[in-house]
Amino acid sequence: MQRVITLPDLRSARLSFSGTVGLVPTMGYLHEGHLSLIRRAREECDHVFVSIFVNPTQFGPKEDFARYPRDLERDFRLIESFTDVVWTPSAEEMYPQGYQTWVEVEAMTKPLEGAMRPGHFRGVTTVVAKLFNAVQPHKAYFGQKDAQQAAVIRRMVRDLNFPLEIVVCPTTRELDGLAMSSRNVYLDSEQRKAATVLFRSLSAAKELYEAGERNAEKIRGKMRDVLAGEPLAEPQYVSCADYDTLEELDEIKGKALLSMAVFIGKTRLIDNFVLG
Ligand code: AMP
Known about the structure:
Blueprint: E1 2-4, H1 7-15, E2 21-26, H2 32-44, E3 47-52, H3 72-79, E4 85-87, H4 91-94, H5 113-116, H6 120-135, E5 139-143, H7 147-159, E6 165-169, H8 189-194, H9 197-210, H10 216-228, E7 233-242, E8 256-264, E9 267-275
Parallel strand pairs: 1-4, 2-3, 2-5, 3-4, 5-6
Antiparallel strand pairs: 7-8, 8-9
Helix pairs in contact: 6-7, 9-10
Bound molecules: adenosine monophosphate.
């Protein structure tokens, strides 16, 4: 595994490979969810690039950028046997003095995460566009865990004619259903137990849907009821939206996205299920 930091080094590493290249963009502190994306890239591409960059522009001023967990040496050990190149750019090189170009996807970034985290998706789409331009992969791998992010990036790729395929991989979970996340390390043992409430709430809603319920408000009500049963959980939003447009539904007709953001103490967790 080659470790590169600067853009010129990344470019010369990229030029040394012929064949297909898969890119897995991450913010590091890697877990089994990230590794499942890298494995999928390994299966489908001749060469695998992983980027590790805690992107400052996608964090709000009151968010956890400074304390976001970081451990590059551990990350390198986890991926070295099945990654060709790991790129850890610096913020100074990604956003040099005078930087003023942004990529913005419009309507789809307004609800859900976009409503709670103003500016978040502008940071995400901008950095991902820069990663794509630098690495020029044939395929790029994202997790269903961040459902809106995956949808927004697919939209950006179509709208801006990026010549690559986006592959969205299933959410990897702990045995008790908690979606794996670098942020789970913030949870103490009591909070860690309480955090299963997101999965329990989504599962209860899915059960209701499978029993034939199509009224979206009843589905949202079910998710809220389960969340209300966990004293440590403070829901921020609960949504039953159209899978493609992310607009809230009255009635579920086609594919729907159930999603939620919930604070457990100071830790903000998100999770989702797709119905239909
Ligand atoms: P992050 O490092 O949190 O920015 O995540 C990097 C990529 O890994 C994103 O595409 C995430 O959606 C994906 N990812 C994070 N957690 C999981 C998970 N539990 N299962 C599958 N993919 C994940």
